[in-house]
Amino acid sequence: MTTVLISGASVAGPALAWWLRRHGFRPTVVERAPALREGGYKVDIRGAALEVIDRMGLRGQVERHDTGMSAARFVDSTGAQLATMDAALFGGREGDDAEIMRGDLARILADATPDVEYVFDDSIATLTPSADGVEVSFERGPRRTFDLVVGADGLHSNVRRVAFGPESVHLRPLGHHIAIFTVPAEFGEERIELMHPAPGRTVGVYRTAGSPDARALFLFPSPEGGAEHRDVAGRKALLAEAFAGAGWQVPRLLDAMWDAPDFYLDSMSQVRMDRWSTGRIALVGDAAYGPSPASGQGTSLGLVGAYVLATSLAAAPGDPVAGLADYERRMRPFVEANQRLAERNLKGMVLGSAAQIRFQTLMLRLMPHLPGRERIIRRVTEPIRRAATAITLPDTPTPRRA
Ligand SMILES: Cc1cc2nc3c(=O)[nH]c(=O)nc-3n(C[C@H](O)[C@H](O)[C@H](O)COP(=O)(O)OP(=O)(O)OC[C@H]3O[C@@H](n4cnc5c(N)ncnc54)[C@H](O)[C@@H]3O)c2cc1C
């Protein structure tokens, strides 16, 4: 049985493990965190990725964990409502498109792979390829040999660094940073996305259906020198500096930040690579082609990438290198179409001037009354829909599960 080591147990890793099991491979997942990382932020599943979820038989579970968001409400620096819009339109979702917390999706995928070996609290240290496998040393566990190794370990992928070189070569910053952390429920309103646009920086707070707490989200221009060299306290100080003087409930949110259990701050960057495999080592999901949170398509790319990678490997028994080439050929146009969404979306997420904010507010207020309303909405949703469906999924070969 072909053995595959997957680094990363979030979305792409467990999804890949599911499909590899289905095709008769034996996957092992190694995750750096001591346990499955719950919580996080809300992510979208659209188009071809929904089809993958259907083929896994997980649609019902995903629907049961839907965030249930109903509206986005824009507020000014005093908290007064500027405009409101439907949550699905705000998130660029239509039809069956789903929104779910990343942690809930990771839990669903991990629970769906009970026969997969998960190793927590460890990380790959070295990869030594041989003619018919890869010898792997770990930071904690004993050395092992696998037929294939796949990095599904996110934007700052360890496998990418070990096998493909420093991340500075592959990361393309989009000019903005993003921060997100959990805040007490009282900051948000259940099922409402509160947004406060200010010139050059945006703050949001949302609370999903039934959630005991809320999430605060901050977008701002990348600071000079970046944030990579800073520790958590340094990153928090950076965020406080970037939002100094901001109105609405920002000062209270920044106070709450110091107690946040899950503070996240990073550059919005895309991963751009000429190749996603070298020999018997490959990448999937954000590690290979992270489109950035601004695209709203990272989760979908991870799900589709996992499906295509497993299907391509299954279609080339005994020749993983041919399978990896097929994966790349099928996925690249889809990835490029989705990566293109990010910069366009970002322009609408952070507005440059007070005049732009006034114009956006006016458009949102007029929208329900405009005669060409449907056409305007389509102009927002159509590019996302087109990118999300820009791949024909290969058929699933007959399962070889033992
Ligand atoms: C703030 C924010 C908002 C986002 N919003 C959206 C959105 O609205 N819609 C959307 O579709 N996407 C969104 N995304 C992106 C989405 O979360 C990712 O595209 C998606 O989670 C990618 O899944 P992945 O499995 O490839 O990587 P990740 O989810 O990043 O998972 C990587 C996993 O690898 C593990 N890992 C890291 N290093 C190692 C190591 N050395 N060894 C072992 N394991 C390791 C990590 O602990 C993690 O579990 C957002 C991302 C962020 C940060």
Strands, count: 18
The ligands found in this model are: flavin-adenine dinucleotide
The total count of helices amounts to 13
Multimer state: single chain
The CATH topology of the domain at 3-67 and 98-170 and 270-346 and 384-388 comes to: FAD/NAD(P)-binding domain
| Overall pLDDT level | 94
Compute the separation of the termini in Å. 9 Å
Domain FAD-binding: 2-338
Organism: Micromonospora kangleipakensis
Protein name: 2-polyprenyl-6-methoxyphenol hydroxylase-like FAD-dependent oxidoreductase
Pfam families: FAD_binding_3 (PF01494)
List the helices and strands and how they pair.
Layout: E1 3-7, H1 12-22, E2 26-31, E3 42-45, H2 47-55, H3 59-64, E4 71-75, E5 81-86, H4 87-90, E6 98-101, H5 102-111, E7 117-120, E8 124-130, E9 133-138, E10 144-146, E11 148-151, H6 158-164, E12 171-184, E13 192-198, E14 201-206, E15 213-221, H7 232-242, H8 250-257, E16 264-271, E17 277-278, E18 281-283, H9 286-289, H10 298-314, H11 320-349, H12 354-366, H13 373-388
Parallel strand pairs: 1-2, 1-11, 2-7, 4-13, 11-18
Antiparallel strand pairs: 3-6, 4-5, 8-9, 9-10, 12-15, 12-16, 13-14, 14-15, 17-18
Helix pairs in contact: 1-10, 2-10, 10-11, 11-13
The chain binds flavin-adenine dinucleotide.
